[in-house]
Specification:
The protein has 87 residues and is α+β, with helices and mostly antiparallel strands. It has one domain. Helix content is 20%, strand content 36%. The chain is built from two helices and five strands; from the N terminus they run E-E-E-E-H-H-E.
Length: 87
């Protein structure tokens, strides 16, 4: 899969982007486990992608839900056995 971040919020520690093969839109948050730092990517609608692109801060409530693992049903890739902690 080819992930392409379109906008990044350094303050909010997340990115929005498009998976180039499928055209799916995502929101990514950084996570870390004891071995590696990586990103978890959550599916978002085109409407949310456009809204977040216009105003990155509008994504913060969704970002917090992702960090609290309340949106796991939207994960684009299942977490591994040693799932990381949001950073």
């Amino acid at each position: 899969m080819a992930w392409r971040d379109v906008a990044v919020s350094r303050a909010g520690r997340f990115a929005i982007g498009v998976e180039e093969g499928s055209g799916r839109h995502y929101l990514a948050i950084p996570v870390s486990n004891r071995l590696v730092d990586y990103e978890e990517r959550y599916a978002i609608s085109v409407e949310d992608f456009e809204r977040y692109g216009r105003d990155l801060d509008s994504a913060l409530p969704f970002v917090e839900q992702c960090r609290a693992r309340l949106m796991d049903h939207l994960l684009l890739e299942p977490p591994g056995a040693d799932r990381g902690i949001p950073g």
